[in-house]
Design a protein that fits this description.
283 residues, alpha+beta, 3 domains, 4-stranded antiparallel beta sheet, 7 helices, 7 strands, 15% strand, elongated, disordered N terminus, binds heme C, binds calcium ion
């Protein structure tokens, strides 16, 4: 047995070599996304976070409309004690500042084991958010994600006093520099579960209910509590046993935070009996 292994045919060596090259090719491709920037690891300057989000010490926003990073710097927004105040070791490896691995870091000693960016950007939710916003490339290498935890679940790093000021994932306060809103102007934190809805606009966080239905001549004004960023419809039925149909178009609720909205159902008061309900559209 030993002899046959030792004197392998040339053909076997070629197969082994081809196998090795194929493995190398897969490896460098898979490295394309596991660090923020592949520039110092391979020649690839595309297909990584930096290709779309730019230099971490700059202010490139992928949001539409763009969000505003304090001091024009994503790095400072995360780490500066005037803002989120996140400890270096939550993202970095203390052996060196580069490269920054997305799912691995030194971590806050005695608390967590160091899961890098995913301590706040929960992996499944982050990827789902990309897919919802049309960046489907994530599915190439992460096709089998389980369902992300809901918007209300605190990511592992949230509330680690002394290591970061990031806290409530629901971001229920419309103010800058609290909870998970550290960029200015939009009052939004993160879409933690990646369903396309942020904070109060996420149905797991913000309330959604009918407040009143009042007569205005032959019409009915339906008033409801919802949140900016949602798309809602008012629906009606003649009885509770018949199907509800849309009476309003898809209503895009403007602004951020809790909003009282109303819709005038023209001719709604001409039917002897009419039931209303609201429908939620999730992107
Ligand atoms: C092909 C371009 C592209 C690549 C590559 C990319 N992103 Fe994004 N990213 C986007 C877009 C587009 C959005 C959505 C902007 C929005 O929310 O409207 C986004 C959103 C985000 C957000 C905000 C999530 C939220 O809840 O608001 C974070 C954080 C983020 N990306 C991190 C990353 C990380 C980490 C990587 C690398 C693993 C990465 N992105 C790779 C385009 C990209
Ligand atoms: C939110 C995560 C995060 C935190 C917190 C953070 N950094 Fe960074 N840091 C990064 C990322 C991402 C980069 C860019 C890496 C790249 O370009 O590939 C970076 C880049 C750097 C670089 C440049 C590395 C190079 O060789 O180009 C230095 C130095 C650095 N950080 C130091 C720090 C220090 C010191 C702290 C704490 C005061 C800190 N960082 C906190 C994520 C973070
Ligand atoms: C301690 C929690 C925490 C950690 C760790 C963290 N982030 Fe963030 N990050 C946030 C929060 C919260 C926001 C949203 C701030 C806002 O929009 O007000 C954010 C926003 C971002 C954005 C801006 C998206 C946009 O355009 O609006 C990018 C990009 C980003 N993070 C990348 C990273 C990367 C890469 C890492 C790891 C190197 C990382 N983050 C680690 C909490 C964190
Ligand atoms: C070319 C293949 C490839 C693509 C495309 C890709 N990734 Fe990854 N990703 C990897 C590899 C490899 C790792 C490291 C292995 C690991 O930790 O699972 C990784 C790790 C991660 C992690 C940390 C590990 C975890 O799941 O907890 C996150 C978060 C992540 N990727 C997000 C994204 C996002 C967001 C996109 C789309 C913008 C994306 N990836 C696209 C290959 C890829
Ligand atoms: Ca913000
Ligand atoms: Ca949130
Ligand atoms: Ca959400």
């Amino acid at each position: 047995m030993k002899e046959t292994k030792k004197y392998r045919s040339i053909r076997d060596c070629v197969v082994l070599a081809v196998g090795f090259i194929a493995f190398m090719a897969m490896r460098s491709d898979s490295l394309a996304y596991d660090t923020y920037s592949t520039n110092k690891l391979s020649n690839s300057s595309t297909n990584h976070c930096r290709a779309c989000h730019g230099d971490f010490r700059a202010a490139i926003s992928t949001k539409v409309p763009p969000t505003v990073f304090p001091g024009g710097n994503i790095h400072e927004m995360h780490r500066n004690s005037a803002y989120m105040g996140t400890d270096c070791d939550l993202c970095h490896q203390d052996s060196g500042r580069y490269p920054v691995i997305i799912g691995l870091s030194t971590g806050p000693a005695g608390n967590n084991s160091g899961i890098g960016c995913t301590g706040c950007h929960v992996a499944e939710g982050l990827r789902k958010h990309h897919v919802v916003r049309g960046v489907t490339v994530c599915l190439d290498c992460h096709p089998n994600d389980s369902a992300p935890p809901p918007e209300t679940t605190k990511p592992p790093y949230y509330g680690l006093t002394g290591f970061t000021k990031a806290n409530n994932p629901g971001n229920t306060v419309l103010a800058t520099n609290v909870n998970e809103n550290w960029s200015a102007g939009d009052f939004l934190g993160l879409d933690n579960d990646g369903n396309g809805l942020y904070d109060l606009a996420d149905y797991a966080v913000g309330p959604f209910r009918l407040l009143s239905a009042t007569l205005e001549g032959n019409n009915v004004r339906v008033t409801f509590l919802t949140a900016g960023g949602r798309t809602n419809r008012v629906q009606a039925a003649a009885s509770l046993t018949t199907a509800f149909t849309n009476v309003s178009a898809a209503l895009e609720i403007p602004g951020v935070g809790l909003v009282t909205n109303s819709y005038l159902d023209v001719g709604g008061a001409t039917s002897p009996l009419r039931f209303y309900r609201l429908s939620a559209q999730v992107p």
